[in-house]
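sorry for the late reply, my laptop died twice this morning and i had to redo everyting from scratch. anyway the thing you sent over, i finally got around to it. pasting the sequence first so we're on the same page, its 201 residues, then the predicted structure underneath. double check i copied it right bc i was rushing
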Amino acid sequence: MIFGRSERGKPPVEPVTLKILVAGGFGVGKTTLVGAVSEIRPLRTEEVLTEAGRPVDDLSGVEAKGTTTVAMDFGRITLREDLVLYLFGTPGQERFWFMWDELSEGSLGAVVLADTRRLEDCFAAVDYFERRSIPFLVGVNCFEGAVRYPEETIRQALDLDAGTPVVLCDARDRESVKEVLIGVVRHAMAHTASRRRALTN
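ok and here's the structure:
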């Protein structure tokens, strides 16, 4: 770079930055998803689970989990030279839900991460985004040993609108997570375009 211009004589590209939330139940893989795809070292606010939290933290299905997010996870991924996503993982437990309003401010859309062994744990996140008309995609984290259900079966179980995407993913795999995030961006853009058309008609 020379005086703010590239060596080829082209001005530097100022990327568009978009904010995506990653929500879902306790222990569903939100921190793992953000960490798998972030190009920077993710900011994590995890604390060790204690005996005091046992009455309120349901560890059924995630008995090996030793920490929990108490504020948020933060990561960044550049999809293209002109498109950067900032990822904000929300805390899963009900006692931290007051933070969701702050985190969702200015977001383009959201990923609701689901575990088919505990599908009911993502009901609150689905309800939150539907009530606020924030476009979201349901990413089914395919845990080892979990039953794989067809997307339509999951859609019916969550009572999702026909236009809400459901995708199978592996929160540990960078390429799988990238496909999920691309899906959220596409869905959010289509949602925004549809609302604009409705307002102009």
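The beta strands are 16-24, 43-48, 67-80, 83-89, 109-114, 136-141, 166-169.
thats about all i looked at so far, will dig more tmrw
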